[in-house]
Design goal:
With 191 residues, the protein is mostly helical. The chain has nine helices and no strands. The radius of gyration is 19 Å and the shape is elongated. 25% of the residues are buried.
Length: 191
Amino acid sequence: YILLSSLEVFHYGIYVLIIAFIPLVSNFTLSLLQDVVENDVIRFIGEGDEGRAKRLFLENVAMQLGTAAVLSIATFLSAEFVASWYDEDIARLIRIISPLFLISALYTTMRMLLKVHLRFDIIASRSTVYNILRLVLLSSFIFFTSLDVKSALIAHVGASFVAMLIFVPPFLRIYSPWKSITSSKEWILLK
């Protein structure tokens, strides 16, 4: 509601189009094998093969972060190309959202291990934290500066980043028993 009442229709449309780009690309790249990998990690843990579960998880993390890094860099660098069709402001807005691929990949990989260990309470808290932070950031822009597409995107990226950070301590606690486990030597994901 805050965005609808603060932005003009044209600017709100730009905001929605730019934000829609991230899930569109992520669903075809980052999320493609996530459920299959998650099921196999659970299966390996159930079979008592923690080494293979750890190896598959780490391979998935490497693939997710590698793909996300490429997408973030490509999005950042292609902003000028897109701006050649529109205007320079679009390039700046596209650059602002480029880290969302990395944030999404980190969140997705941490969420997978939390799901495997049945920590749904932590997973559920992410959307609450994100929405509260976004509300605070958007309200801050309204009261202290002005709310435009750029500040709305900054609020989105900032809230996503901080909401992802709440996963780090529980993720590290859950991952810590795996530190002493030697991961399997064979490649599992690329097999």
